[in-house]
Write a structure and sequence with these properties.
25% strand; 232 residues; three-stranded antiparallel beta sheet; alpha/beta; single chain; six-stranded mixed beta sheet; 29% helix
């Protein structure tokens, strides 16, 4: 299924403060869309509203989502220092086997593939609790990828990664998006790589949303302290 997100006159408030006001836009896969905006602009608020609309659709709501398989990677996740699973077992939770305790040959292949996409193939047996912050973040992304989503939402997924792994991850996510035809929504503060890897942008500012081609990202939307992501 081609993923589609339709937003019509959506408004978000926090107490007496309006975060987003009468926002309307449509996003359709296949596409790699980067969501930009200052802290407090409403990026995470909007994405949580999209997730809610996808998981609990309502015909009359301002946000409508069409997607067979949705995967979401939050910005922060605290599993504790005594989390018992290995990286491979944790990623395998995304296989959705229901009550079946075993893993088929095809599922094992998908699991190995997902680990390889985020450079964790050689860390499969490492306890997730013993992994570094960057390794954990990549494991979270692998768990999303193993679900083979047609809509993938990532909230600041490179926040715990160094420049090398950031560059590799963005390039691979872009390649996967093009190969699978999925719709990727990637929340980011770093705009240095947007014109090279993204198709379009969603810029939240002044309670509004501007959508446009990544190659024409406005100067006002570009981060001032971005680390350059080199082509890999």
């Amino acid at each position: 299924m081609t993923a589609v997100i339709s937003v019509a006159d959506y408004q978000a408030t926090f107490g007496q403060k309006t975060i987003l006001k009468q926002v309307s836009f449509t996003l359709k896969g296949p596409a790699f869309t980067v969501i930009l905006g200052e802290n407090g602009a409403g990026k995470t608020t909007l994405m949580k509203a999209v997730l809610k609309a996808a998981l609990a659709p309502h015909p009359g709501s301002a946000i409508q989502v069409q997607a067979d398989r949705l995967a979401y990677v939050p910005q922060f996740r605290d599993l504790g220092d005594d989390y018992p699973l290995s990286i491979a077992a944790f990623v395998g939770l995304g296989l959705n086997r229901g009550f079946r305790p075993w893993t088929t040959a095809a599922e094992k292949k998908r699991l190995r593939w997902a680990l390889a996409q985020v450079d964790l193939a050689d860390k499969a047996d490492l306890a997730l609790a013993a992994a570094s912050g960057g390794q954990k973040q990549r494991a979270y992304i692998a768990q999303a990828l193993v679900q083979q989503p047609d809509l993938l939402i990532l909230d600041e997924p490179t926040a715990s990664l160094d420049a090398k792994h950031t560059a590799v991850l963005i390039a691979r996510l872009r390649a996967l998006q093009q190969e699978t035809g999925m719709l990727v929504l990637f929340i980011s503060h770093d705009t240095s790589w947007v014109s090279q890897y993204a198709d379009n942008y969603l810029w939240l500012h002044d309670q509004q949303v501007t959508v446009g081609a990544a190659a024409a990202l406005p100067q006002a939307a570009q981060s001032k302290h971005s680390e350059e992501v080199h082509h890999v």
